Amino acid sequence: MPKGATTRLVALYAVAVLLGIASAWLWVTRIGISGVDAGQWRVNLLAGSTQADAYTRARIAIFALLALDRRETLYYTTDRDDGGASLRAECPYSIALRPPTARWWSITAYAADGFLFPNKTRRYSVSGENANVDADGWARFLIAPQSSAAGVDARITTSGAGAMRLTLRLYQPDEGLQRAPQALDPPRIKKIGRCVS
Fold it and tell me: How many domains is the chain built from?
């Protein structure tokens, strides 16, 4: 094979490998997860199962660190409020939910890098153990920047600016939710007040 043809062939292989890596990274980090929706919340039905495809496993390895089968835990995630707007770390939100039928539940806020928000209060999640449930059966709390006025009493404080993601974990959910996760009465997320800059 002529030297010029070999060089072109090596360059073609290099471009193909780079495109393959780039497309896999794009699929894992930017394309929405497969699954079913409950309002603005999405649950991946393959997370933690032996039927999970390579992209699901890679996404969990990058963003979730560990996932159990849906008989043990359902993981609902969202990056949108009830109006469909992107959640932002610099904005305050009220969260209201009817505690789901599960042995234990929690809502955790994550920064754009997939890690917890650093904050002085060390409040990273609200759960069935520390949520206040009102007389109507709703647990209500705030997720807000620690520098905002609303952040003084916030149950989860955020910091910085940029995208934010919430995860609702249901440990040992009832059998009805295991069979039909889309039947969840989803937590309501409403932006309140002004965003800090």
Answer: 2
